[in-house]
Amino acid sequence: MISVNVRVKKCKKSDLPECLPIFIKEFSENPYNEKWNKKLALKKLEEHFSGKNKYCFVAKENEKLIGFAFARTFQWHDGRNGFIEEIVVEKHYQGKGIGTKLYAKAESGMKKKENIRRVWLITEPSSRAWKFHERNNFKKTPWILANKKM
Ligand SMILES: CC(C)(COP(=O)(O)OP(=O)(O)OC[C@H]1O[C@@H](n2cnc3c(N)ncnc32)[C@H](O)[C@@H]1OP(=O)(O)O)[C@@H](O)C(=O)NCCC(=O)NCCS
Questions:
Q1: Residue 47 CA, ligand 1 centroid: distance in Å
Q2: How far, in Å, from the CA of 128 to the mean position of ligand 1?
Q3: Is the CB of residue 89 below 6 angstroms from any atom belonging to ligand 1?
Q4: pLDDT tens-digit profile of 97-124?
């Protein structure tokens, strides 16, 4: 279970460099196999961080950053909705309730401030992350996530 020394706090811009190694490592592995470098990963995280309607949190054990969740809200026909942009926990700390705590903080922030109706996310169906999201009561949608290569 979660250590007493783990705290979830609002993310500051100065936290972003510490998010990078966790982000790059976790998404370099199966089933993602993404090839991020520090420069590109920083650009991506900065993009989320500087966006509108953002809810960004970090988990820290003492002063060490061990995970983060970045979310934002957007307008939908039923009201404001939330979107989970990123949620990642450093390997050695996974399975201890930290992701759940990060997710809960993002969700409650969006609910409290903007009374969101629903939360959306994109995930990989064969990943352990999908199990995590199912445990947080996410259901599959009939939408297709599509892209076109250039
Ligand atoms: C998905 C992730 C954020 C979950 O955070 P976490 O702190 O490990 O999750 P919690 O401890 O709060 O919840 C545990 C539950 O999540 C699931 N889970 C997902 N990944 C897990 C892992 N590596 N270890 C243990 N449980 C994991 C399990 O269903 C587990 O429930 P169980 O103990 O009943 O089996 C984290 O595992 C992670 O960073 N994974 C790699 C990056 C990733 O896939 N991000 C999400 C992209 S959409």
A1: 24
A2: 6
A3: yes
A4: 999 999 999 999 999 999 999 999 999 9
Task: Specify the pTM.
Answer: 0.96
24 CB near ligand 1 (under 6 Å) = no
Q: Three-class SS of residue 27?
A: helix
Q: How far apart are CA 5 and CA 99, in angstroms?
A: 15
SS3 102: helix
Cα torsion at 20, 16, 80, 123 (round to 10°)? 10
Does residue 22 line the site of ligand 1, with CB under 6 A? Answer: no
Helix (H), strand (E) at residue 17: helix 16-28
Q: Tokens standing for 36?
A: 């991020």
- Using a 6 Å cutoff on CB, does residue 20 contact ligand 1? no
CATH architecture classification, 6-135: 3-Layer(aba) Sandwich (3.40)
**Closest residue by Cα to residue 102 from 1, 3, 6:** 6
Helix, strand, coil percentages, rounded to 5, for the chain: 35, 25, 35
Report CA dihedral (107, 105, 138, 90) to the nearest 10 degrees. 140
